[in-house]
Amino acid sequence: MLPSIDSQLQLKNLTTPQEIATSNSLKAQTRQNSATSKWASPISGTLNDEALRAEQEKQEKSKRLEQRRKHLSAILETEKNNFQTELLSHRQSVSAGAARSNFLREISDKDQPKIADNEFHRNSIEEPKLENLQLDEKRTLYQPQELHQRFDNEQGNQYERKNRNQQLKIILQQQMDEFNQKEQESEILKQEEERLLKDQWELKQIEEERKKNRKIFNSTRFRELDIKILASIVYTNEQSNLEQSEQLKRNVLNTLQQFQQQIKLEREKEQEFDDMYPDDAAKYWSRREQEWNHEREIREKLIEEIIEKKKEEIIKKLKLLKQQQEEIHDKQRILINDMEQARKYDLIEKQKQLKEKEISNTQQERENFRLEFEKQNIIEHEDKKQMDQLVQHEIAVNTTTNEPKFYGRRRANWN
User: Fold this and answer.
1) Which residues contact residue 394 at a Cβ distance below 8 angstroms, ignoring those fewer than 6 apart?
2) What b/e string do you get for 361-387 counting C-beta neighbours within 10 Å, with b at 16 or more?
3) Which terminus of the chain is more exposed, N or C, with fewer CB under 10 A?
4) What does the pLDDT read at residue 354?
């Protein structure tokens, strides 16, 4: 604040520049001490991490505010010194008021219109300045409305950003759930693939075992081996979760039952063979050998057909599993890419929010400084206006006091 009229009158008592400078320095020190005691705030002794960061931010804001206040105080101090210098010059002009009054009285009547023109010219210069000052005052009155509108816009932008962030979190969660589901499906397919590979290996072992035992003379033992093979195939199919053709199941079960029935009949006839004569036994064995060869051919053909169908089924299932695994892997790659893009977008949004917040704070600080500066200019203009009026009044008083008395025109003595 600039000095009031009372303080201005007190400044008149200070006749020398040294006294004026001493008074100004004391007042500036007093304002600085009061500002320091007003804006200093104690810091808590024990704070957690979040409270400490909040306190640090608060201290930084206080420091920036103190810097702005000091800058404004320096500007005001400069203006005050200029004003005091101007006031001192006015005082010097007041002390020479009597001389100026005498000089004005000595000016002839033809010079008075010129002085009036100069006064009119000075007024014509001051009027636009006054109009500009009034416009500044009106703009200052409308400033709160602009700040309120800006605050509403900022609140709306924050609400939109919050909604976007919430939707982004929901999308990320859905993608994570879908990714986990694909992982489970991939694990199941992997287990199925392992079972199929195991079945494929077992079929290969069965084929090798049949080739080794193909020359067995006793057809009963060979049929027992085929029954074992068929039973293992049926057991494997029952344990597997894969779908198998109904025709293959029926063929395997029918062949298994047929072999079991033949083995049962062979054992019964072997018991009867012990009671036969040698000639009858030879004829029987010759006939049975032909039957066994024929049965072996049919059985081998059936077993090979069953094994071949089983191999084809396993290969088909493996191919299907491979396609499903590739589809799952493609979807997982797409999900990973989408999640990475979503994270980048989230990071960009956070950086954008921080930047907008910083810009908003900077603009708010500049606006506050501008408003404070305009307010100080208005106050300074009013004080200067009052001081000019006071000086003009003093000049008028001094002019009236020092004006000599008029005794009329001297007449010539005609006598």
Assistant:
1) 94, 97
2) eeeeeeeeeeeeebebeeebbebeeeb
3) C
4) 84
What is the rounded distance in angstroms from the CA atom of residue 126 to the CA atom of residue 133?
Answer: 11
Contact 211, 303 (CB under 8 A): no
Q: Would the pLDDT of 46 be above 50?
A: no
Amino acid 331: pLDDT = 81
CA 149 remoteness from chain centre: 25
* Segments making up each domain of the chain, as ranges: 107-144
263, 227 in Cβ contact below 8 A? yes
**Sequence-ordered list of residues with C-beta below 8 angstroms from that of 209, at least 6 positions apart, any chain:** 225, 229
Residue 20: how many other CB atoms lie within 10 Å:
17
**What pLDDT score was predicted for residue 97?**
54
Residue labelled with tokens 């007041």:
94
In this structure, the number of other CB atoms found within 10 A of the CB of residue 276 comes to 13
Transcribe 287-353 into DSSP letters: HHHHHHHHHHHHHHHHHHHHHHHHHHHHHHHHHHHHHHHHHHHHHHHHHHHHHHHHHHHHHHHHHHH
Calpha distance 388→123 (Å, rounded): 14
CA torsion sign for 348, 349, 350, 354 is: positive
Token pair for 176: 């994570």
User: Among 132-146, 155-169, 201-215, which stretch is predicted with the lowest mean pLDDT?
Assistant: 132-146
Q: How far apart are CA 297 and CA 305, in angstroms?
A: 12
pLDDT per position as a tens digit, 116-156: 455 445 555 555 555 555 555 555 544 555 656 666 666 67
pLDDT tens, residue by residue, 268-297: 666 665 665 566 666 766 776 677 667 667
What is the reported pTM? Answer: 0.37
Q: Which residues are CB-neighbours of 12 under 8 A, at least 6 positions away? A: 91
**pLDDT tens readout for residues 328-381:** 888 878 878 887 887 887 788 788 878 888 887 888 888 888 888 888 888 888
Residue 136's identity, in one-letter code, is D
Burial of 229 (C-beta count, 10 Å sphere; 0-12/13-18/19+): buried
CB contact at 8 A, 307 and 207: yes
The rounded distance, in Å, linking the Cα atoms of 180 and 210 is 46
**In this structure, which amino acid lies at residue 12?**
K
